[in-house]
Amino acid sequence: MTTSGRLIGVGTGPGDPELLTLKAVRAIESADVIAYFAKHGRGGNGKAIVEPLLKPGVTLLPLYYPVTTEIDKNDARYQNLITEFYDRSARSVAFHLDAGLTVAVLSEGDPLFYGSYMHLHIRLSQRYPTEVIPGISAMSGCWSLAGMPIVQGDDVLSVLPGTMTETELTRRLADTQAAVIMKVGRNLPKIRRALAAAGRLAEAVYVERGTMANAAMEKLADRADGDAPYFSLVLVPGWENSR
Question: What positions does the domain Tetrapyrrole methylase occupy (predicted)?
Fold first, then answer.
């Protein structure tokens, strides 16, 4: 260890500030620096969740993505831009850690589950004292909102990114009892087709902004096609013989 600075990855949960853990609240209130990811021109979802907890005078460190959906994720340009971004972000956080400060990096949901924080973690955790505070995941918040028992007994739950190919989505949906499909966005029409091909469309429930004040949900079969917001996912329950 080269410094007394401390890195904390903080899970901010699925959106409702009341679903922050007590440990997350303490970390946010005591940190010297609050780092958060956001698109340019926006405040960031993680920061919005914890806004009431930010102490006067705390240093805010926005980490602005250079690209989100403008370039295909498999394009070499995307890979280069995003790798450079995480390298640059790690250096920005390290600057404060080298000054002996505690830096809390906000991560929506859980930091190590599809979270941007993990890219900083692998770059910095071997050099600085590090703690990760888990958060309630978006999928947990959404199936709780829907009152949907998702798996039981020997059921298998598959977590699938909607960015997969339609063929692969269909294959995996046909080979699991329950599924959570994340990264919906502009992939909604493809997800619908894959669910239909796997014979699972009638069971699927679409949830957006789960646990937030403007949450909404409906059967996916009833929702019109079109882009979905960032905070959205599709639930396919298992537990066929519920009793």
Answer: 6-218
Cβ count near 226 (within 10 Å) = 8
Residues 147 and 200 in one domain: yes
Flag whether 188 is in a domain: yes
Same domain, 166 and 225: yes
156 and 215 part of one domain: yes
Q: Are residues 94 and 147 in the same domain?
A: no
Q: What is the DSSP string of the chain?
A: ---S-EEEEEE-BSS-GGGS-HHHHHHHHH-SEEEEEEETTS--HHHHHHGGGPPTTPEEEEEEES-SSSS-TTSHHHHHHHHHHHHHHHHHHHHHHHTT-EEEEEESB-TTSS-THHHHHHHHTTTS-EEEE----HHHHHHHHTT-----TT--EEEEETTS-HHHHHHHHTT-SEEEEE--GGGHHHHHHHHHHTT-GGG-EEEESTTSTT-EEEEGGGSPPSPPPSSEEEEE---TT--
Q: What is the pTM of this model?
A: 0.89
Same domain, 102 and 15: yes
